[in-house]
Amino acid sequence: MSPLPSATPATVLRLGTAQTLAWASSYYLPALLAQPMARDLGVSTPWVFAAFSGALLVSAVVGPSAGRAIDRHGGRPVLMATSGLFAAGLVALACVQGPIGLFAAWALLGLAMGSGLYEAAFATLVRLHGQGARSAITGITLLAGFASTVGWPLTAWLEVTVGWRGACLAWAGLHLLLGLPLNALLPRATAIQHEAVSAPPGSATAANKDRPPRLAWTSTLLAFSFAITWFISTAMAAHLPRLLQAGGVSLAGAVAVAALVGPAQVAGRVLEFGLLRRVHPLISARLAGITHAAGAAAFLVVGAPAATAFALLHGAGNGILTIAKGTLPLVIFGASGYGARQGWLMVPARIAQALAPWVFGLGLDRYGVAALWGSAGLCLLGWGALMALRAAR
């Protein structure tokens, strides 16, 4: 059996660029287009976010099937089809005339998100490179970490220039003119590579197959930790400026501090790619898993002067944990069946992600900045789950 090749810089660049486009045109779209959409369609802004939450639920349902398809056929055909789904969903969104069409268009985008965001990209790399995919996973998250940095200004400019419908059409065109060719240039997964990702007899992965209770417990701990991570990440993405203001930070200061989360995420991923690359992913995940709680405690106790530290700690930890979502299942379970397993592990995370803006928003409305104690407590629970995991030898 020939060893799997390492990921080339060209593969990482293509996949990372396509991921940047996918995230910018889906996950980060409502932040800037929800209000003009609601105003034009004659609905309230929460209706738009409800449709977006529906898309996240759809993505949770489709994730395991997309993962199985990548395990069987490789990521290239799946991601190429996903480029078409993104384009179709965005065109449908540009054409909606009422609430029913709004939810239908976002459901179509949910199909694309469930089969074309990070989990699909990670599965594509593992299908091609097996256990050697860790550095490539970090590389694409480094590139896609700039999705909001690139996407928000471009979406804002398009909305002002051609309106929100024109912005959706422009993003659809980019998927066909840029995303589809980039995914089409990805390497094909061969039958030899498919066999190479299977666990050899006597390996830790093969041994896990003989211990179903332990395997189920490990999967439960991982899914629980990922769900908490996504809940906190999405809650902060939706409410961080308002949360900072509730803690005594001015409006201008809150916007400036919240803008530090993106660079902090990239810095965390650079740290993972550099100093932490020789450390077991479980160790780096445990270190990152406590940062939100530490930053939240500092902000709650000290107040506004600690706002910057909170944003930096939250962002850096979230950046590393994004990588951990791809690397931990790989090193603990192995590469065989990675795509389907990753899809199932992320189902609770997608559901938590869909509920996060609403649930944390209710807490913020009722308790103000003290709602941050809730996310800090959840963070500690997620960290406890990581501490309960055993590193695979």
TrEMBL record:
Gene3D superfamilies: MFS general substrate transporter like domains
Listed InterPro entries: MFS, MFS_dom, MFS_Efflux_Transporters, MFS_trans_sf
Localization per Swiss-Prot or TrEMBL: Cell membrane
Transmembrane segments: 48-66, 78-100, 106-125, 137-158, 164-186, 215-237, 243-266, 287-313, 370-389
Domain Major facilitator superfamily (MFS) profile: residue ranges: 11-393
Alphabetic keyword roster: Cell membrane, Membrane, Transmembrane, Transmembrane helix
Lipid bilayer topology: Multi-pass membrane protein
Pfam families listed in its UniProt record: MFS_1 (PF07690)
Predominant location: membrane
GO MF annotation list: transmembrane transporter activity
GO CC annotations, alphabetized: plasma membrane
Protein name (Swiss-Prot/TrEMBL): MFS transporter
Annotated source species: Caldimonas caldifontis
